[in-house]
Amino acid sequence: MRQTPTPTPARRPRTGAAGVAAALALAATLAGAAPAHAEAPWPARPVTLIVPFPTGGTTDVLARALGDALSRNIGQPVVVESRPGAGATIGADFVSKAKPDGYTLLMGAVHHTIATSVYPTLSYNFQKDLVPIAPIAMVPNVLVVNAAQTPARNVAELVALAKKAPQPLAYGSNGYGTAQHLIGTQFQTATGVKLLHVPYKGSGPLTTDLLGGQVAMSFDTITTVLPHIQSGKLRALAVTTAQRATALPNVPTLAESGLPGFDIGTWFGVLAPAATPQPVVARLSEEIARITQSPDFRKRMAAAGAEPMDASSKDFAQRIDAETRKFATLVKENNIKAE
């Protein structure tokens, strides 16, 4: 009798450890074949704006005004963070080494183009490691004295007072290698007087000591000292730019006061790490230009004694290059060194 062959049972899916391992291997293969997840277009999260001076000074004031406007424009918070010290170089160094993704920016200033020559051993190159985005404003510097303790009412009287003083009059600056330091050194060379340089980390602590009489004078930016000039606590003797300042039209220039050749103001602008993608640089430059050209921002700057600047990132870079060369010469001529 012929037997009917027993049918082979259908193969069941593998279960247990071997099956799980096979499934995981397949999943890993498919994941490897899939494209990498791309980061969302900028800006997808808050932006940090580094201020290389303490809070309360001109850099901080301008950074917060810009941050407020930029936050509204890009739809993300702009966090202003202070990293002061070493003539603004600590903050610049931090940003130069940050991830170049547009989320860490520097509120730079003219001080950085001076510090390049004053600090020969910087761990970053300001012109190579940072890319200029856009300038924000130009703020004239002004020679001020403590009105209660220094009787001089003009530059000539201050020079005469300094020459008769038994000890050098002290002037404060934002630190070695800043515009105030350079102006103070030039002032001594031009007048033949000897002053005592007292460096601070920024305009906030400098102004506190100037009002308290710990230093006799400073060459600070108008934004910081304007309220105290208006209150009568500080007396403005001259501005350091070639033209009189709009905020202080009755205050003469140093050139008008008998010291020709002075033309130093303090500009402020935004920079980013050098490898920041060009589309992000272009977007930031465009947004900042919109802000600096707006009537509301210009009104706010005028109240602070600042004059908004309009320039492309390329023009801003050219200004930095030109001023770095210019100040290198002045630093050498005046023998300015970080101590």
Overview features:
disordered N terminus; globular; alpha/beta; five-stranded mixed sheet; D-Maltodextrin-Binding Protein, domain 2
Descriptive account of the structure:
The protein has 339 residues and is α/β, with parallel strands linked by helices. The chain has twelve helices and eleven strands. 42% of the residues lie in helices and 18% in strands. Helix 7 links the parallel strand 6 (169-173) and strand 7. The radius of gyration is 29 Å and the shape is globular. Mean pLDDT is 89; it is low at 1-10, 20-24 and 26-37.
Residue-averaged pLDDT? 89
Q: Mind telling me the C-alpha Rg? A: 29 Å
What low-confidence regions span 5 or more consecutive residues with pLDDT below 50?
1-10, 20-24, 26-37
End-to-end Cα distance: 113 Å
Helix tally? 12
Kindly name the structural category. alpha/beta
Order of helices and strands: HEHEHEHHEEHEHEHEHEEHHEH
Largest sheet descriptor: 6 strands, mixed
Oligomer: single chain
Q: Just give the CATH class of the largest domain.
A: Alpha Beta
